[in-house]
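Thread: Newbie trying to understand structure tokens

Hi all, I'm a second-year student working on a class project, and my supervisor (Dr. K.) asked me to get a predicted structure for one chain before our next meeting. I've only ever worked with sequences, so writing a 3D structure as a token string is new to me. If someone could post the tokens and maybe explain what I'm looking at, I'd be very grateful. Here's the chain:
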Amino acid sequence: MDPIRIIEVKENVLAKNDRDADKLRAKMKENKTLLINIMSSPGSGKTTLLKRTIKELKDEMKIGVLEADIDSDVDAAAILGAGADSVQLHTGGACHLTADMTEQGLAGFGDKHYDLVFIENVGNLVCPAEFDTGATMNVCLLSVPEGDDKPLKYPLMFQVSHALVVTKIDVRSVFDFDLAKLEKNARMRHPGMKIMPLSAKTGDGFEEWINFLREKVAEQKK
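---
Reply by user tm_fold:
Sure, no problem. This is what the structure looks like when written as tokens:
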């Protein structure tokens, strides 16, 4: 009897995706375009953050947004209304984007050049962290209502994220939320993580986020 063959499917899929992601990252660097992958749970404020970001930066840089959802084009329409180009990606039930999906989305922009492109990934704290999109950097959003313990429960999301944006800080008084505890938990997963608390509604803390983006866009152009 022939021996049983064991094929590590997930490992093979991830290895190919990692190769595709590295190629895309190199292409973005050559094009001098900063590609940022935004990840979070549903309702954390990704689209609201992006709308205010576009408002603040659209007069000084060209911005595009890839909107990934299982269905609908609600968020893409909101981004267009804010003044940035947007491509809607329907994942067909998949809970994440891959590097190949990202490249297909970028092709939807045609020959236009962008200084900054955001990927608004599918909303959850598990699957998107497992697949490299080819982005220059990963940014995780965590809203105050979600609690300060999420880095303990979803370690990979915080390990792969270069920066953490804490959203909805204008409602801190309503929730049992400890910012210092969150920072400790997040840096336990990623010691060098930059953490930026802000409110896209009131603008509190938003200047730090905008200056962070300006700095990263400038670095990508060097």
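A couple of things are worth pointing out once you decode it. The chain has nine helices and seven strands. The chain has a mean pLDDT of 93. Feel free to ask follow-ups in this thread.
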